[in-house]
Design a protein that fits this description.
The chain is α/β, with parallel strands linked by helices. 39% of the residues are buried.
């Protein structure tokens, strides 16, 4: 019986899908093509391999620490909790991240030869799950021959935005897996057309299957600086609620490198399984249009949208009515605080807007108006000099940290639900239409003791209203100093 541990990488920001994808709420946490978010769909797909003689374990997630509560919440909503969630203290690309998963599995399973790790990015779309499961079974046979297997996507057009893999000698008589002859970086259009005609090249999907010990052995041989840094970070790891934190200083000493450059392009063990699985990395709005359901005019729409004389467009309305008239091949994405309008052929240039927001110290690339927290969310309603107004939702049974502000006072008005408010040690229950006042410098806490969500309006007033004016004394989610 072959044992497979899915290792799901969720460290990206998906900036080319701005304004829907933001640094604090990236594309893998969004539902772009169905009811499930991309990370939920990845977990579900990996956890239900319909293949005999394969035992699939609960997945291991490697993620950005800023997304930890959102990811845990989405896993709970799916009903499939991971066996471990590792929080990267800094982004170091895929080679170090995968090494964390390999160390974890090796520690559980020891040196056994029947254990494999299936490495999957959290933000890919696969529409043919049956074909994906079949490809995993084929890759497992190659991985048992001590191969580092990548999945090569059968190209359907001359894409210039992907790397390519040229297949070499077959590993099996049925042609299900091949040695890798070479990896090719993103080609120009003429070269991509030649690759497509040859039939010998596949797109590099960024998905892998191999023995964790073989990966670590090759990492030690080819990139000992990465291996040593991640090994130390893993050995000095610490627990934080439901999460595992690699040692920060050790992990940050690791060079930043992808598995492709660090391992796959240099190892003699590389193999490829060609796969026709309805795959897309959804790296841009144009790519999302390619895989989306469309009307007879080729338009992919979401939200409150009206179109006339419009063809081959992608339109998303997140918060208001959007009308598009007489346009072709455009993308229109509306969110409460930003609107993107562009020709589909310019889809790769969205990052210019993100760079502009970064360079001018704006916030639209970082977070939405609705900001998610482990206890619920808040969103800005109004703001001017010396005051701002927020709407706050606290989930049943959750509580904010016990905290104090140096520069602002707050009014809380309950809209629905029940609030338990503690101010300088005095507890009060508030119901709908009741309110309270928290003077500047007073220690306070907000809880929802009820069975339904608590909604309230918060009015802040003071000389400084930044989110960093919070002194935490106690926190359920480990955010307060120990």
């Amino acid at each position: 019986m072959t044992v497979i541990y899915p290792v799901i990488l969720s460290g990206g920001t998906g900036s080319r899908l701005w304004p829907l994808s933001r640094a604090s709420y990236p594309k893998q946490l969004l539902a772009l093509t169905g009811q499930l978010t991309m990370i939920q769909a990845t977990i579900a797909r990996a956890s239900s391999l319909g293949v005999t003689d394969i035992d699939v374990k609960a997945p291991i997630l490697i993620c950005n620490q800023e997304h930890r509560f959102l990811i845990r919440e989405q896993c709970a909503a799916l009903g499939r909790m991971p066996s471990a969630i590792y929080l990267e203290p800094a982004g170091r690309s895929t080679a170090p991240a995968i090494a964390l998963g390999a160390f974890h599995i090796s520690n559980i399973e020891g040196p056994t030869e029947d254990v494999l790790m299936l490495v999957l990015p959290a933000d890919h779309i696969i529409t043919d799950t049956t074909a994906f499961h079949r490809a995993v079974a084929q890759a497992a046979k190659a991985a048992q021959l001590n191969k580092l297997v990548t999945f090569g996507i059968q190209p359907s057009y001359p894409e210039t935005g992907y790397g390519y893999i040229k297949a070499g000698d077959p590993l099996f008589d049925d042609g299900s897996a091949f040695a890798v002859e070479r990896f090719v970086e993103k080609p120009n259009l003429e070269t991509a057309e030649e690759y497509l005609r040859s039939g010998s090249y596949t797109w590099n999907s960024g998905m892998f299957l191999f023995k964790p010990r073989l990966y670590l052995d090759e990492l030690r041989r080819l990139k000992p600086d990465i291996f040593n840094a991640v090994e130390e970070a893993w050995n000095k790891r610490s627990a934080d609620l439901d999460f595992i934190r690699p040692h920060k200083d050790a992990f940050e000493r690791s060079p930043s490198d992808s598995i492709d450059f660090a391992i796959m392009q240099a190892t003699p063990h590389a193999a490829v399984v060609p796969a026709d699985i309805g795959w897309s990395d959804v790296g841009s709005w144009d790519a999302l249009w390619q895989v989306a359901n469309k009307d007879p005019n080729g338009n992919a729409c979401s939200g409150d949208v009206f179109l006339t004389d419009t063809k081959n467009c992608l339109i998303r309305a997140e918060s208001r009515f959007v009308s598009v008239i007489g346009l072709e091949d455009v993308v229109v994405v509306e969110t409460p605080d930003a609107v993107l309008v562009m020709h589909k052929s310019k889809a790769q240039e969205v990052k210019k807007t993100v760079d502009y927001c970064t360079n001018t110290k704006r916030h639209e690339h970082l977070e939405h108006i609705r900001v998610h927290r482990p206890w619920g969310w808040y969103e800005g309603i109004d703001k001017a000099e010396r005051f701002q107004v927020k709407r706050i939702m606290v989930r049943p049974g959750e509580k904010l940290s016990l905290q104090m502000h140096h520069h602002r006072a707050e009014h809380w008005i309950v809209v629905s639900g029940t609030a338990k408010v503690t101010i300088n040690g005095v507890e009060t229950l508030l119901s709908e239409n009741q309110s309270t006042y928290i003077p500047l410098g007073h220690t306070h806490r907000l809880e929802n003791p009820g069975k339904v969500p608590l909604h309230l309006i918060e009015v802040q007033s003071g000389s400084y209203l930044g989110e960093d004016d919070i002194v935490r004394f106690e926190d359920t989610y480990g955010r307060a100093p120990k």
